[in-house]
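Project standup — Tuesday

K.O.: blocked on the structure for the chain from last sprint. Re-posting the sequence here as requested.
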Amino acid sequence: MTRTNEGWHERGKQSLPGGVSSPVRAFAAVGGVPRVIRSARGAFLRDVSGRDYIDYIGGWGAAIHGHGHPKILRAVRRAARRGLTFGTAARGDVRLAERIRRRMPSIELVRFTNSGTEAVMTAIRIARAATGRSWIVKCDGCYHGHADGVLVKAGSGGATFGVPDSIGVPNEIASQTLVIPYNDSSALEACLVAHRDRIAAVIVEPVAGNMGVVPPHEGYLSDVARIARAHGVLLLFDEVMTGFRVARGGAQERYGVAPDLTVLGKIIGGGLPVGAVGGPAALMQLLAPLGSVYQGGTFAGNPVVMASGEASLKILSRDAYRDLEARAGELEAGLKDAIRSVGVQACVQRVGSMLTLFFGIDRATSMAEVRNADARLYARFFHAMLDRGCHLPPSAFEAWFLSMAHRPQQIELTIKAARAALRGCSA
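H.V.: unblocked you, prediction finished:
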């Protein structure tokens, strides 16, 4: 029974809500039975039945090197032999923080957490302490973790299940978060003018990825930075997804815009759980033990995670980014050619090694446009691709992620599969 995906999923439902540890994994948005993964290597996932799939989930962006990179595995083994957790000061967090600082000049000091959600909570707390204000501004469709204050119109989860907010979030907490459209700097200006003395920070994904990939308009991020600073509001970049993925120095390097605080995750753990917040010393010194803003965690700066993260950044050379850009460009071009040849209405949007194929629309610049995408057609396409050995994200509103392990032959196979799947979906 438990040699099949169905068997393991049914078994999981006896002990886990919905049989999963995170909602999107349950396939509720696309239907069917989730593939229960036994192992992963390079660009492939293998399920419990022994079938392999070309992987475009990529640990939701963390597995930029592919799965089981030997240098990361060696670093993890060495660190584990020295000790799994110390609970006190250690060398690993110093070394990883130094590497982050070198790649992101806007960061002078770093505080590690166990997740991106925790890092966002800390960044907002710093911003409130620095400004003496309480409210924050976020963009419709941008996801910043599942803490109460930011789980408001939060992208893929809400869009997938048709609920923009989660029940269980008190109205008095949600009311401190204002929501504006992504890619609309005039909306930010109007918001800050209307609430000029209440807003501590604006938080934004510099490349939206949790409504699917929606790039910033030219000049949008610099406008957001200018407007925020004109009103004494801190700019927070949530680079959990884009940090060290869309460029060697993250989205802030790619677009030439420096935020006041940066939130990181995913890639800086090399595949292990991690988060971080960083920024100038003047802000980061507000954190205890130097200041009165409290943040702590038993496993923050875990030595095995830090070793994995250090190895992760060492591997990501400038050549690695050039190769990733080239392979992602080939996939984008192949998908667009397949769309044209089949004649289905769809668009492909890409930044670096993350992309999304939206059905039923010609472009998406905001969550309002993303909501017009055809999620049912995506579900058909998803299963057609799964049948052909390609595991896409099980939601129409998520980014696909490529890795260094994706070779030209896997890209070619994916394009061939997509062409056949599109024909079947349009029939």
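K.O.: great, moving the ticket to review. Confidence is low (pLDDT under 50) at residues 156-164. The chain has two domains: 5-64+317-426, 70-315.
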